[in-house]
Amino acid sequence: MASAPRTESATQRIVLLVAILASFVAFLDGTIINVALPAITREFGGGLPVQQWVVDAYLLTLGAFILLAGSLSDAFGRIRILAIGLVGFGVTSLLCAIAPSAEFLIVVRALQGGTAALLVPSSLAIIISTFSGQAQAKAIGTWTAWTGTAMIVGPLVGGLLVDTVSWRLVFGINVLPIAATLWLLMKLEKQPERSRRPRVDVVGAVLGAIGLGGPVFALIEQGRFGWQSPVVWLPLVLGIAAFAAFLWWERRTTDPMMPLSLFRSRNFSAGNIATVFIYGALGFGFFVIAIYLQQVAGWPATLAGVATLPPTLVMLVLSSRIGALAGKIGPRMFMTIGPIVGGVGFLLMLTVSADIDYWFQLLPGLVLFGVGLSITVAPLTSAILGAIDESQAGIGSAINNAVARVAGLVAVACAGLILGSVLDLGGFHRAMGATAIALILGGIVSFIGIRNPVVREGAPAPT
Questions:
Q1: Average model confidence (pLDDT) for the chain?
Q2: 295-327, pLDDT tens digit by residue?
Q3: Counting beta carbons within 10 angstroms of the beta carbon of residue 251, is it exposed (0 to 12), middle (13 to 18) or buried (19 or more)?
Q4: Which of 303-307, 337-341, 452-456 is least confident?
Q5: Residue 455 has pLDDT above 60, yes or no
Q6: Distance CA 370, CA 320 (A)
Q7: Which one, of 335, 334, 212, lies nearest residue 270 by Cα?
Q8: 45 backbone φψ class: left, alpha, beta (φ>0; ψ -120 to 50)
Q9: How far is Cα 41 from Cα 29, in angstroms, rounded to an integer?
Q10: Cα(361)–Cα(186) distance, rounded to whole angstroms?
Q11: Cα(261)–Cα(384) distance, rounded to whole angstroms?
Q12: Of the listed ranges 100-109, 117-126, 194-203, 368-377, the one predicted with least confidence
């Protein structure tokens, strides 16, 4: 009898390690790419549109299929879907590393995003099914902390690889953690087959992908073809129609990929609207900064990666403390103040001049943005997941994750509208201003829409 606890503990440790590694590679690929974009276009050409597509092709399929991935995980088994996702991510990473052209790279990046969508929901699902009670909360906290380090490792490792070897290793490096994760996954016991498999919302997935892809294509290519061209307006109209059909279908089907009933909760709907502005600003702002520092300021990729680390370091120090405080006071004040503070940080970056001074023109704004983001993120997650029933926490989290990815996707797609055809100092200032406005709007939405949970006398404070 004494050996049973040790076996269970060993299994839990393997599950946690598998979940961390599987999610880490997906998050790493989202953060490592920005510093490699100038090197990619130096080799392939294509300028800003190619840089946008290399980022957005990945985010498009990741955002479109992350909700479907949750359904696939429930229907066919979490470990099986996780293994398929890992193999697919490894293969597409290698294809990205040997890409002979920009067009090939963009197509494979889209495939890579689709396989990445299988990783995060399945990783969280095996944690939830393996741990319970306080152990589950601790495991999720550990998973969050370790996967968050991808934001630090990504720009730094990416910059070093681009400067010392090649941008291609930015993708090739994924193979090592994937191989280790698959080896650990083989040590886990197979899950029993479900007696009844839930239906997979394939129609919703297809409509959602077209609804996202059409407008994103139009936004990126309008600078080249113009809005009057059918190459631009036809995908835009088709995408809008598909998205409307997606909303109609999700309301009608018995097994929706995205249950619209969740949006009846005020905090859930307001929190996701705030997510659009906040994460759209995050994706767009750092996309522009990484490219500007290299292409305009002439910095090496490594230095550009290191330069954008301060917000992440600030978050590592403050996020858990802010989350605990928000649990006692409620999320509304934090979600209002945090984005506005972050927006002021980007306004400070309007002082950047042609001869950029990192210490006085960029660093203060980056640090202040990090403070604002630290104030925002944990209360935002708490407000959204606390607004729905615990039994729906998984799909609620997946929806918010998808909203965040789609917000970044659309924001990067809009880069040409703000920057013009070439990124220069004026375009950088416009981008920083637009990012600041989006963050401030996120704070305003939170102030208007978010309500603190009512705590009955004698009841514990929300956590």
A1: 87
A2: 999 999 999 999 999 998 888 788 778 877 887
A3: exposed
A4: 452-456
A5: no
A6: 14
A7: 335
A8: left
A9: 18
A10: 50
A11: 14
A12: 194-203
pLDDT score of 85 more than 90: yes
The letter for the amino acid at 317 is V
Q: Which residues contact 349 (CB under 8 A, 6 or more apart)?
A: 361, 362, 365, 366, 432
The per-residue pLDDT for 193 is: 55
Residues in the chain: 463
What is the radius of gyration, based on Cα positions, of the chain?
22
Q: What is the DSSP string of 110-131?
A: HHHHHHHTTHHHHHHHHHHHH-
Is 70 within 8 Å of 199 (Cβ atoms)? no
Distance CA 91, CA 85 (A): 10
Q: Alpha helix (H) ranges present in 169-265?
A: 169-172, 175-185, 202-225, 230-252
Q: State both tokens at 62.
A: 């990741």
Q: Cα separation of 395 and 204, whole Å? A: 15
> What is the Cα–Cα distance from 461 to 297, expressed in whole angstroms?
49
pLDDT digits 0-9 by tens, 149-158: 777 788 888 9
Distance CA 245, CA 203 (A): 10
Calculate ∠ Cα 112-113-119, nearest 5°. Answer: 95
Tokens 């759209």 sit on residue: 280
At residue 241, φ and ψ (nearest 5 deg) are -65, -40
Of 430, 413, 427, give the one whose Cα is nearest residue 292: 427
- pLDDT of 274: 97
Intra-chain end-to-end CA distance of the chain, in Å: 36
Which two structure tokens, joined as six digits, stand for 306?
């290191």
